[in-house]
Structure prediction request, 656 residues.
Amino acid sequence: MWDVLIVRPILNLMLLLYKLLWNETILAVAVVTLVLRLLVTPLMLKQQQAARKTQELRPKLAEIQKKYKDDPQKLMEEQRKLGLNPLGGCLPSLVQLPLMIGLYQAIIRALASTPLQLLELPRDIYRWIPSFSSLIPLNSRFLWLDLALPDPIFIMPILVVVTSWFYQKLITPPALDAQAEAMNKQMMLMMPLMMGFFAWSWASGLAIYLLITNLIGILQYYVFRQHYTYPTPETTEGKSIPQKPSQGQSPQKRPRASAKS
Amino acid sequence: MNLWRMMADRLYKRGNTRHAGTRGRITGAGVALFLLMTVLSGCAGGGLRHESWPGLLADDGVIYAANLERVQAFNTETGKLLWSYPDETQKDQRPFLSTPVLAEDYGPHGLLLIAGYKDRTVYALSLGESRAERPDLLWTFAQATGQYVGSGVVADGKFIIGNGDGYVYALNLNDGAPAWQFPTKDRVWATPVVVGDTVYIASLDHRLYAVDLTTGVERWHIQMDGAIAGTPVHIDGALWVGDFSSTLSQVDLATQQIVWTYTANDWLWASPLADGTRLYFADVGGRVYALDTATREILWNVDVDDTIRSRPALNADGGLLFVAGYRKGELHTLETETGNKMSWGPEMDGRLPGDLVADGTHLYTMPILVSERINAIELRTGRVAWSYPATEQTK
Prediction:
């Protein structure tokens, strides 16, 4: 069911794009990543809005959590009154996650670097679209890369680390306290390094996918910037104190971003 | 990527509102990320041992099996292990998968040519006077940059083998020095075929090349619709070539033209099996075909409902055709006259992507994803004569 509904449509879309885009795997991967990112953009923005609302109502939320800590039923009711849905923020993720994992699997299957991987591929290809089988194996050469193998000179992992860090920096919400600040710092370090590790150890086709995903994410950030703008700690307390950008601050704290919200 | 951030963000928010410790939140986010990445890594599949399939050669009462960590020789009657290369004390990760090749007329008592899948090295082993003697390493060739999937062929004092780097290497049997190397535009997984003074090379680049055996210079090539991964078969001046566009092509070697084609239901990957003028071939969708090459008539075709990658085998009198299934791991038996399915042989576990080999008394299989690496099945009775490693039933 997973294959039929998720992986195969993505894989065949990739094959179609490969055929249309001059048999260039990297272009097919880029376009299919872009298409899927655009498809989930409304959900992503909705999720950002939910996160922003939670952030805005944090003081009130803390208050009612304290008040009704022994009455979960009442607590949920009060949260609902504030317009907060505990599942509202998770549902978009539940839709996005399968698509992203499906895209990852489709790339792995389409590149099929080993004989046994290639042997699994015929079942995934739509036979009613003529000549798809003739496209196999996909052209895996791009510049110095064999997309089915890890990057031998580590340029892709470095690019993935840099773009992951930058993207992370853009979307990280402002820290409200010292603990959250520590958490943010950990994430800013851990996520790019983890992405870099996978880009280093996986086939470079997947590193390309990670890189393109980051670049699209960065682009989306600038296009939909107002959705990512979180209220500062002061505004959530009912005060608005203009903040000077300082080293290590996330862009959301900058006056320019705050002014747009 | 933002999803991973979102997950961490959710954990962060939950932790923050409940005033949980920073360490707990970081650990939670880390665990979520680790689990997700583990799932994704698992999706990549394909450990070292299961990227390709092992092959074996039966010759004169001995089978030589590329048995992953080492190449091993067994007595065909008893299943007794005669020797291993490298020996059992060495932990190896090459692994050996490509079917070993004998060069009887070279070295003091013959050579055995083997190739490591991951270490990209060809080894020439000098066989002892008795086949039971452990061979010595004569030379190695380690200049290829891809993996060895297909096997090689011995001709004109050379060992000719294709590689995943797209080259076909012709190595002098005396010292392993390359006599020539021929480039194609994609991986070469099929075994080269030598007819007269020409080497025919099938490549995943959709081409069948004809190359001079002595010099390695291209004479001509033919473009197919699909990639060619299976080894072509030579019958009466023509090569029969199956490709991923589901087309079986008859290539006339004299005119260098495709003179006839047949479209199967699915990709053709398994090497066809010739028996006189009859050709048996199977597509990966599980349909098995019998073709009379003289009349170009499809005599029968049967669906065995499995994925077929391996070359089939015949029993001693040619009355039964054995077909190995990859997806279900079943051994299918068909009557060669009618294509009727027969109930024959044992039920076995694992999967069967590797070529079947029959030597007149036994049918040998090398399953993957199961503890028994080699099974010898008596052709007369269909009973498992021995397995390696031995099971309770075959001890």
In short: Confidence is low (pLDDT under 50) at residues 1-27, 41-48 of chain B. The longest strand of chain B covers residues 257-263. The two ends of chain B are 54 Å apart (CA to CA). The first helix of chain B runs from residue 2 to 17.
